[in-house]
Design goal:
Layout: E1 9-16, E2 26-33, E3 38-42, H1 49-57, E4 64-69, E5 72-73, E6 81-84, H2 96-107, H3 113-126, H4 142-155, E7 160-164, H5 172-189, E8 192-196, H6 200-206, E9 209-213, E10 221-226, H7 245-267, E11 278-280, E12 291-293
Parallel strand pairs: 3-8, 3-9, 6-7, 7-8, 10-11
Antiparallel strand pairs: 1-2, 1-4, 4-5, 9-10, 11-12
Helix pairs in contact: 2-3, 2-4, 3-4
The protein binds adenosine-5'-triphosphate and magnesium ion.
Adenosine-5'-triphosphate binds next to helix 1.
Length: 300
């Protein structure tokens, strides 16, 4: 029997407990993110999403299990992994160009100033901030700051991009524009992304795969939902007209409203195995089994 190759990011038996007593926030979490895939994690507030992202970023150590990236266990932060937080976390005393150039120069210390500047400018243009490169964060709108954060993260060409509700603090119009930009940039750069969101429509627009997390404590990954709308057919303005849209949306909403808190009862006696998660393809039930069980290929 051939053992399937590991995905680029492989979360293997992850657990996190704060303090010595009380239940774990989560334990025995297994899932993978393939190279070039856009993966969203959805779950209710407090279930442990940011904690998982912090472990992926190397900013927090798990109490058990491991995260393997490109076949190596991560043991701290790395420029291979760029993080976009909800707050933009820009350096306030540097300009837009300065903030991005700082990251680029950290990534490629041997580059001279001109090369760093040219590389930084490419990404400033990519996010539509040409002309604002000499402004400082205090002179920018919330949406512009978040664009700088996105440009900075992409400019270091990370193996994976980690985003924790990156658009949640923005107004609806700016959020929509940035979502489309991120989708375009990820298409162009084949970036591997792991993103947390509360927003079901945001997940449907951006994600190729949606990981559903149940309520904590002792949160579990309930299942993996495949976005049955291909990337090329996802456009923010007519998302709701796509034949698959309501099937996916209803599945996600039903999970958040009911199943996320009753999941333990749902799986009682069903032989739930955290290493062999159900993969669901909403809207394709007629041509595929409604809940096909496949191995994620995470065996060691
Ligand atoms: N440093 C810490 N010390 C103790 N408990 C913590 C710590 N960090 C997180 N927790 C607890 O772990 C749980 C998960 O927190 P986390 O921030 O990962 O949730 P989340 O799913 O990201 O929530 P939200 O959607 O509100 O951002 C919460 O109950 C939180 O109180
Ligand atoms: Mg969080």
């Amino acid at each position: 029997m051939t053992i399937p190759a590991r995905p680029l990011i492989s979360v293997e038996g992850l657990a996190r407990r704060f303090g010595n007593t009380g239940p774990a926030v989560f334990e025995d979490i297994w899932f993978g993110v393939e190279r070039g895939e856009f993966c969203c994690l959805i779950g209710h507030s407090g279930c442990g999403k940011t904690t998982i992202l912090n472990v992926l970023a190397g900013l927090d150590a798990p109490s058990g299990g491991a995260v393997i990236v490109d076949n190596r266990e991560i043991d701290g932060p790395s420029l291979d992994r760029a993080v976009i937080f909800q707050g933009h976390a820009l350096l306030p005393w540097l300009t837009v160009l300065g903030n991005i150039a700082f990251a680029v120069a950290s990534r490629w210390p041997s580059w001279d100033r001109a090369k760093v500047r040219a590389h930084a400018m490419t990404f400033i243009e990519l996010v539509g901030l040409k002309g604002a490169e000499n402004k400082r964060p205090a002179q920018l709108s919330g949406g512009m700051k978040q664009r700088v954060g996105i440009a900075r993260a992409l400019s270091i060409q990370p193996k994976m991009l980690l985003m924790d509700e990156p658009f949640s603090a923005l107004d609806a119009l700016t959020r929509g524009m940035l979502q489309e930009e991120v989708l375009r940039l990820c298409n162009e750069t084949h970036q591997t992304v792991f993103m947390i969101t509360h927003d079901v429509d945001e997940a449907i627009l951006l994600a190729d795969k949606i990981v559903l997390m149940t309520n904590g404590p002792g949160a579990r990954i309930a299942e993996i939902v495949v976005n049955t709308m291909p990337r090329a057919e996802r456009h923010r303005n007519d998302l709701h007209r796509h034949p698959q849209y309501y099937a996916i949306r209803n599945h996600l909403v039903e999970f958040l409203v009911n199943r996320s808190r009753n999941f333990d009862a749902e799986i009682a006696g069903q032989g739930y195995d955290p290493r062999r998660l159900r993969v669901v393809k909403p809207g394709l039930a007629a041509v595929n089994p409604p809940a096909e069980v496949v191995s994620l290929g995470l065996s060691r």
